[in-house]
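Table S4 entry, Medium-chain specific acyl-CoA dehydrogenase, mitochondrial.
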Amino acid sequence: MLASKASALTPRMWNVGARALAAQAQAQHQEKHEPAAGGAGLSFDLSDEQKAYQDLVRKFAREEIAPKAAHHDKTGEFPWELVRKAFDLGLMNNHIPAKYGGAAMGSLDSVIIGEELAWACSGISTAIGGNNLALAPVILAGTHEQKQKYLGRMTAPITGDGKPLIASYCVTEPGCGSDVAGVQTKARRLKDGSFVINGQKMWITGGGKANWYFVLARTSEDPKPNQAFTGFIVEANTPGVTPGRKEWNMGQRASDTRGITFEDVVVPKENILAAEGAGFKIAMGAFDQTRPPVATGAVGLAQRALDESVKYSMERKTFGKYLYEHQSVGNMLADMAIGVQNARLATYRAAWEIDQGRSNTFYASIAKCYAADVANKIAADAVQIFGGNGFNSEYPVEKLMRDAKIFQIYEGTSQIQKVILNRELVKHRKLGN
């Protein structure tokens, strides 16, 4: 099997193998299978292709990413070398349809990959997978020409400086985060149909490395969000686009995060996504697609915290016993395992709903909220189990605790997920579902 031969593969061969596995896994999603005899067809087994892909990514994450995680955390240096290797392995931009050069990978396949990357380092994982949020609006609402131009370039063979292209999602502003309807960046239409954008975005993942941006801007004073905003594709080298300084964050420091200023930025009419006024719906639809990958990042981090805690508890002795032999510590480990398993199942369900072609707003918010909260609790418990050592940067768990916090904040806070869930519950009740 490919997984067992991974160590003998060159980067170029890994790329071919990984993309082939992705195509096979996606094809399997689309096949119709008869339910197992005497059952309803429910299975918790991954396919052979998914297992092989998981093994391939796990090897890369644990042998290439994990040893370099501390360096990037301490320096904040963007991990271009690892991003390039991930691109060569086919781990970037894998949602892009095959006709535009992508692997057309299903959401479930992507979350399997994402968990393995985040286990090694969620900051580097974000640097590798951050494109997904910017790509989602174009995949969902772009014209063929837009997809060919902006998705196609993301999958094109690397030339020039040898770096994969980065794209960024520009919605958050200094005055609004989860309140997307509060966006103040404005776009004014000119006589030729083009628009001039003015405003400032904040906390933009990949902002200083991006080749192009998805930008949400207000094009109408209409108070209804569904009519007030328009989505634009903006080339990063357009005059008037100015990235700010890299922010030094609490965690996930390998990820590039900046503010972006748009000053009299002219965008041609062919770079409008869908239609004027359709931006809010597109932006929200993108979140449904990308919240499962965010949730799986939290799951990967939580699994790492659990693994480190079990290992440490079997090595460290207090009062003549290994830590795991103390009931209080054993109960903590058990609760951590329960949290990881439940968060993973919630994430898989949210991803599976996407692959079935159904709306997953309800399940995506459950997964994102629950996995984020679980990751924070488990990381904090890991520090507690490590005791004084856990508070020291020579041990891995303090970084996990710092990295975990952002999962409760970006792509909609845990509190906002509960607002969404409440709305979904009432909506389905009214519809009689």
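Residues 1-14, 28-39 have pLDDT under 50 and may be disordered.
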